[in-house]
Design brief:
mainly alpha; 23 helices; binds zinc ion
Amino acid sequence: MLKLTAARLARESFSQLARVPAGRQSRDRSRADVPVGGRAVVMAMAAAMDGFGTEGLDFPTETSLEQWKLEHVARDIYRRSVASARIREEEDPTEECVACEGGWEASVAVLHRETHVAYLTKSLRHLSAGHVVLDASRCWLCYWIVHALALLGEPLGDDAARDVVEFLSLCQHPDGGFGGGPGQMPHLAPTYAAVACLAEIATLEAVECVDRAKCVAFLARCKDTSTGGYRMHEGGETDTRGCYTALAVARLLGVGSDAELRDGVGAFVAKCQTHEGGVAGEPGAEAHGGDTYCGLAAAVMCDSAHLMDLPELTHWLAHRQGAVEGGFNGRTNKLVDGCYSFWQGGAFPVLELASGAVLRAMGGAEGGADRRAGATRERRRGAGNKGGAGNEGGEAIASDASSNAACALFPAAQLATQPTRKTNTAGSHAFATPSFSSRALQGWLLLCCQLPNGGLQDKPGKGRDHYHTCYCLSGLSVAQHWGGDGLVGPATNLLERTDPLVNVTEARLAEWTRLVAQLPKI
Ligand SMILES: [Zn+2]
């Protein structure tokens, strides 16, 4: 059996780029190199990459070259994955028929469940010395690891759960909230990480670990009454991350409907929405994937999403997905990155929760938003935009597998094969047609972001870490359960379903919520 793993394909693709030409390696990011030899480099690479074109690179910039290289790495991985599946089928005709539509992916787009679990489980007990720089992110490390294991259907054992709760209790500040590690000042980011991690554990010990009254008092102290937003810590910066983490913690602690905590958040977030349609960290800054998720989810949690221009937001989100790579980027003209599978991909189910009115506005016959909605629908029908970042022109690519683009190789599934959709927690609001290709996103994550020895990464060649493992898997869960286009790869790829507002697996969140409801009111 030919053992061509996605990671090996990725490595080989990068080394192939790096070999040609000598002295002009692909990862040479020196600004001075681009104008001097940029186009010649591209031409040499194109020749070495077996027929890939140089279209659109007449005037290469550092950005366009990096985009071009990543697209060709992804195409190469996809092309070789299909070839690998065909060879497998020839060697063992009893395997799933690769000639059948979509069948090829079942043998190569496989989630490396066991090695991911092994990587995460080991990390819970031991981290290498290099992690010392994450001393202020120790609550985050707990959340990234515990949530990723929960998505994989691998809950902690009793001992590990008890140890994590005990460690997080050491990070709790005497005046409320959690610091990044033991003895550190309270901050909204690790407070969210700690409470979400405890919700993922969802034992009585975990619930009782949080001093809820003091935690809510800490949230109130972080409230920036002059803007309506939240400061990340007392005296700190006000931004959309603060809004999200404060309201997510309040929601997890059962006080999400508190009027004082919610007051003014929606108006602040609306001011952060930019001319592009996405959301920035603060008014006047650039739209960004993490801030867009945080802003939108915060607005939804305080019932203020109607203050935002949601069709423009949807338009911006949809154009963050690279049709060739299948993943999302975080900003215009940036490369796709696995973690945005959740920050951008996860915003689509939050949009579902936002309002049925959004769907009506975008699906109706009238209004300027309809043209844009139409463009995103075209994209989803298996074509997509021609390129990834910076290709917002909307020219459709041919939907044949020979292009080796994610949107062509992973077309929308037939309706008849789609799994029955579960009712989401908000009940009636649901988009019939999400404006992103969930199958292309799954293809990107499974073939370009996984490492066979466990863990997931930003993009091929970057290497694994716990943050990207957590958010790649979170994005994969969203794509599998909320995309409406079914599963890429074998049935064993299916992850647990995550709650898109707080990013805790739904089953554990239900148990946590039940336990919190039994506690006295704050
Ligand atoms: Zn990333």
